[in-house]
Amino acid sequence: MADLSSLGDLRGKRVLVRSDLNVPLDGPADDLRITDDGRIRASVPTIKALADAGARVVVTAHLGRPSGAPDAAYSLAPVAARLGELLAQDVAFAADTVGDSATAVVGALADGQVAVLENVRFNAGETSKDDAERGAFADQLAALADAFVSDGFGVVHRKQASVYDVAQRLPHAMGNLVATEIDVLRRLTETPERPYVVVLGGSKVSDKLGVIDNLLGKADKLLIGGGMVFTFLKAQGHEVGKSLLEEDQIPTVLDYLKRAADTGVEIVLPTDIVVADAFGDEASARVVAADAIPAESLGLDIGPESGKAFAEALADAKTVFWNGPMGVFEQAAFAEGTRAVAQALTGISGLSVVGGGDSAAAVRTLGFDEAAFGHISTGGGASLEYLEGRELPGVTVLEAR
Ligand SMILES: Nc1ncnc2c1ncn2[C@@H]1O[C@H](COP(=O)(O)OP(=O)(O)OP(=O)(O)O)[C@@H](O)[C@H]1O
Ligand SMILES: O=C(O)[C@H](O)COP(=O)(O)O
């Protein structure tokens, strides 16, 4: 796959870099703070390499899932400021993605300077399912640059304008971050040392339930935590109260449970749950049995007994892939399940990979040393889809020259 050197002499060239700068933010709307800058730090080496080579670097990225129109709550302005600090150079910020501000900011860049465009998802064309609409937006993005570098590993599973279509319109190359991530994940797919244990959690339930299908043929054990738990519990006939639930996935989940039993893959579900009366209500947090969730409460973490059981299930693992926090780790009352899994991973003798923006943030904000894990991937959904063996549109598009 073509790396940055394939783009030739970059001096004076405008290079559009797609990074994944989707970081967690917290605080009041007018003073949002980045709570974990891991994805920004991971994006720095490629941006710096391009700037050092004399390119005029134009960074495009998304933050969250706005509805295709500008929304101040999802502005990349704080991210651009942090990028400037990490690069130790001024980073210009365009107040739009392809409009007058972007044109002016990019036009004013000197060789070696860097600009960040406003959230690419403020434009409906970015995520449109309509090829023509996405293509029209990609045309506008491509007009801002002479070359394209794909470095946002966390989004390479998205067939979106700034990830996929723009690569068809400009000379392109794979960035260092995408190349590194794929190298590590390849080790998990080719010859994982066994036992191979996969831990799944998080809140993007519908995105992630599907991966179980494929993992049933690959992993020896699947540990299920986070928001995904409740669709399993409901499928087993239990009350889940107001917890996250994908009702229409119940038949799929029942099929997974049956196939796991048939093929000898162990699916480990929590036996106790930390519930609360309302989302984030730490004062009402209490532990209940997983088959006795009160109708009026919602599950926000796996319980202590489950944390222990998950740690035991991980103890003899030689390969572990973990995606998705076990609970709402951002609040202390619901962070212990995630802590238990992270702690268990630090003790395994083989390769441990933590994948996902929030999972990686959880590990760091709970105070774990990154070096205690084999690899911390910036991609959640992207790494899961890679492990499933699915085609990543943002990678395959780079193969076509
Ligand atoms: N039981 C639960 N109910 C609701 N939210 C939950 C629950 N358990 C975990 N979460 C939330 O899941 C979020 C992370 O989920 P997500 O699926 O996005 O993880 P990720 O794969 O690490 O990140 P990404 O896919 O964005 O890279 C966290 O913000 C956490 O609070
Ligand atoms: O957080 C992520 O996994 C990536 O930034 C992709 O975000 P998305 O799931 O909203 O496409």
Automatic annotation (TrEMBL):
Binding site for (2R)-3-phosphoglycerate: R39, R121, R158
A molecular function GO annotation: ATP binding
Annotated catalysed reactions: (2R)-3-phosphoglycerate + ATP = (2R)-3-phospho-glyceroyl phosphate + ADP
InterPro entries, A to Z: Phosphoglycerate_kinase, Phosphoglycerate_kinase_CS, Phosphoglycerate_kinase_N, Phosphoglycerate_kinase_sf
Residues that hold substrate according to the record: D20, L21, N22, R39, H62, L63, G64, R65, R121, R158
E.C. numbers: 2.7.2.3
Short name of any one Pfam family annotated for the protein: PGK
Major place of residence: cytoplasm
Protein name: Phosphoglycerate kinase
Organism field: Nocardioides cavernaquae
